């Protein structure tokens, strides 16, 4: 397969593996303390890596709006990387994002002509060409830029990939904003808006050439090589129910009236009009209402755009991730739509813009999509920052690491899946993966009465451990500080003992 190469590509392809796992430290909790929404301040390369043990394979939709490399310096962030550096910045982040996606999940990336075509090729490499969904065209301007030197650049791209296109399916979109222009109601039909639909087809139909009589006695038959596509009886029934349109004069060739309210939803298209999903001006107005005109975030997206993506790609309760959060549009919209979310932003505006915006959302902020989705407030989130690495360069565990954190990392290391039972009562048995029990003896999890506070595998301790898996485990992986149980006995019991920290090698 042809490959894109750039200066530093080999290093970029190693970066995701090399970046350390850092502790995620909760700074504050807002609203409902049980809500599982996270606003993280920090570089997303490190933040995404640190999320892997808890969220790998769980994110239903990633919607990101990375710097486009427009060679500009915006007030809140810089958008001026050398072309190769931009590719090197994106590559490892996309790899980590891919690992966080659920098998039926998808990623949507906004971009423009500066890097869009290169981004598509990089995403082919990371996600696989076969998982490409489409490139959407979003009409971002409200009116053409008539002072443009060449062409008015009216659109951005939205490049979408599935984790696995064979199983990914979009939600359909409502007609109310997908094709309003086709519908009208010139006869004031109480059933509401309708559109004309042809009553004839090219396919021959046995009873396809009967005569019909209009309201003023005019006789109509299909033109040459066309046939009625319905029987006389059906035609008569439709006419009785006022579902045939003979034109404003009542004398033109008949059409069927198809009511908007009776038609199902539509497959989403790749052209997203500003009238349907908002534009840049609307986005600026939204953030101006939130933060005031003097402290406006320079490059926000409109809430309707994020809503469109999340509507197509998620259902209520699904987990949404935006790792280039900006002014927190994706998180705000996900929250209002009843999705769970994680937002990552490295700039100081994580505190000055994202945090206050999301506080307003839980208080029922009425702007953006609030009316459309009937948002009145509620829920909550936590604000986190990145702490020190979990593992020191020589492999030792950072002493600040507590049991649940290490448990999450080791479970992920052993199984490649996230550890989701961290809210349950702490138990040294982290879980069963297939028929393997994974156990962690750390921080004296079994109490102080045992050797070295319960961090050492002894025969006495085994008597407490074994019942935890209640006969379900055929194999055991046990992490601890030391093993005093003889090796022959461990072999008999099918126990693989791993010594902390020496046997921990994070990938
Ligand atoms: C185009 S803006 C996103 C705007 C956002 N969609 C909105 O509606 O407000 C890109 C954001 O990505 C952030 N960013 C850039 N590099 C980052 C990184 N390595 N880690 C985290 N955030 C980053 C920038 O600070 C900026 O806020």
From TrEMBL:
Catalytic activity: a 2'-deoxyadenosine in DNA + S-adenosyl-L-methionine = an N(6)-methyl-2'-deoxyadenosine in DNA + S-adenosyl-L-homocysteine + H(+)
SUPFAM superfamilies named among the record's database cross-references: S-adenosyl-L-methionine-dependent methyltransferases
BP GO annotations: methylation
Keywords, ordered alphabetically: Methyltransferase, S-adenosyl-L-methionine, Transferase
Gene3D superfamilies: Vaccinia Virus protein VP39
Enzyme Commission number(s) from the entry: 2.1.1.72
GO molecular function: DNA binding; N-methyltransferase activity; site-specific DNA-methyltransferase (adenine-specific) activity
InterPro entries, per database record: DNA_methylase_N4/N6, N4/N6-MTase_EcoPI_Mod-like, SAM-dependent_MTases_sf
This protein's record includes keyword Transferase: yes
Enzyme class: transferase
Protein name per its UniProtKB record: site-specific DNA-methyltransferase (adenine-specific)
Domain DNA methylase N-4/N-6: 59-350
Lineage: Bacteria, Pseudomonadati, Pseudomonadota, Gammaproteobacteria, Chromatiales
Alphabetical list of Pfam families matching this protein: N6_N4_Mtase (PF01555)
Recorded family membership: Belongs to the N(4)/N(6)-methyltransferase family.
């Amino acid at each position: 397969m042809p490959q894109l190469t750039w200066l530093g590509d080999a290093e970029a392809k190693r970066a995701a593996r090399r970046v350390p796992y850092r502790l995620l430290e909760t700074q504050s909790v807002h609203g409902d303390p049980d809500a599982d929404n996270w606003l993280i301040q920090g570089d997303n390369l490190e933040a995404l890596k640190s999320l892997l043990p808890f969220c790998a394979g769980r994110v239903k939709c990633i919607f990101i709006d990375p710097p486009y490399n427009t060679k500009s310096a915006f007030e809140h962030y810089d958008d001026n990387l050398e072309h190769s550096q931009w590719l090197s910045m994106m590559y490892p982040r996309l790899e980590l994002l891919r690992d966080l996606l659920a098998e039926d999940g998808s990623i949507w990336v906004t971009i423009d002509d500066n890097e869009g075509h290169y981004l598509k090729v990089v995403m082919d490499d990371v996600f696989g060409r076969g998982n490409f969904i489409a490139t959407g065209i979003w009409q971002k301007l409200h009116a053409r830029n008539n002072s443009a030197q060449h062409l008015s650049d009216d659109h951005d791209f939205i490049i979408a990939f599935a984790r696995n296109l064979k199983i990914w399916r979009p939600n359909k979109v409502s007609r109310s904003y997908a094709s309003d222009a086709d519908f009208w109601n010139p006869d004031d039909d109480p059933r509401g808006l309708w559109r004309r639909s042809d009553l004839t087809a090219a396919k021959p139909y046995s009873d396809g050439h009967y005569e019909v009589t209009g309201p003023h006695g005019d006789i109509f038959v299909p033109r040459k090589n066309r046939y009625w596509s319905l029987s006389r009886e059906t035609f008569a029934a439709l006419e009785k129910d006022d579902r045939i349109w003979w034109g404003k004069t009542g004398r033109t060739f008949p059409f069927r009236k198809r009511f908007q309210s009776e038609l199902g939803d539509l497959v989403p298209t790749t052209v997203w009009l500003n009238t349907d999903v908002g534009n840049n001006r609307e986005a600026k107005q939204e953030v101006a209402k939130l933060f005031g005109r003097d402290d406006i975030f320079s490059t926000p997206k409109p809430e309707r755009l994020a809503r469109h993506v999340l509507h197509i790609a998620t259902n209520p309760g699904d987990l949404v991730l935006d790792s280039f959060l900006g002014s927190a549009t994706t998180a705000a919209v996900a929250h209002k739509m009843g999705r769970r979310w994680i937002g990552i932003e490295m700039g100081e505006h994580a505190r000055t813009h994202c945090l206050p915006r999301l506080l307003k959302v839980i208080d029922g902020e009425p702007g953006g999509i609030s009316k459309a989705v009937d948002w009145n407030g509620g829920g909550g989130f936590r604000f986190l920052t990145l702490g020190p690495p979990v593992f020191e360069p020589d492999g030792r565990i950072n002493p600040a690491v507590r049991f649940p954190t290490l448990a999450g990392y080791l479970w992920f290391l052993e199984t490649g899946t996230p550890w989701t039972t961290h809210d349950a009562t702490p138990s040294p048995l982290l879980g069963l993966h297939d028929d393997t029990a994974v156990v962690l003896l750390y921080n004296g999890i079994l109490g102080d009465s045992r050797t070295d506070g319960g961090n050492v595998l002894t025969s006495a301790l085994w008597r407490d451990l074994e019942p935890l898996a209640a006969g379900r485990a055929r194999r055991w992986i046990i992490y601890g500080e030391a093993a005093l149980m003889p090796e022959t006995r461990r072999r008999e019991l099918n126990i693989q003992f791993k010594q902390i920290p020496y046997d921990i090698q994070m990938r």
